[in-house]
Amino acid sequence: FCLQNHLLLAVDSDKRHFRDFALWKAAKPQEVFWESPWGRGRPGWHIECSTISSTVFGSQLDIHTGGIDLAFPHHENEIAQCEAYHQCEQWGNYFLHSGFFSPFRRV
């Protein structure tokens, strides 16, 4: 287990390091897949966002936004991928994470 952002996370025993994440996922039955040198599969979740951001905005972002639930691990992994791909030290200048709004929740 590891502690990240005050949450206790289970560590996958198949990982070399608890922060490892999938770049490519093997296809499951009935799932869309692409042929690759690693077998049938699909890109990992974080690759989708890195690809879209890089295609639309290029090699650097001024401001990246998203829900607080995406801060870790999603945005951390997106940063790692983009900085490696674009060979830069800082891919995004600012990350703005919003909270959640629930009109029915009473405090």
From TrEMBL:
Name-wise, this protein is: tRNA synthetases class I catalytic domain-containing protein
Pfam families hit by this protein: tRNA-synt_1e (PF01406)
This protein's record includes keyword Signal: no
Which of UniProt's keywords are assigned here?
Answer: ATP-binding, Ligase, Nucleotide-binding
Q: Which residues form the tRNA synthetases class I catalytic domain?
A: 10-101
Family indicated by similarity:
Belongs to the class-I aminoacyl-tRNA synthetase family.
Source species, domain of life: Eukaryota
Question: What GO cellular component is one of the record's annotations?
Answer: cytoplasm
Single GO molecular-function term?
Answer: ATP binding
Q: Which GO terms describe its biological process?
A: cysteinyl-tRNA aminoacylation
Would the keyword Transferase turn up in this protein's UniProt record?
no
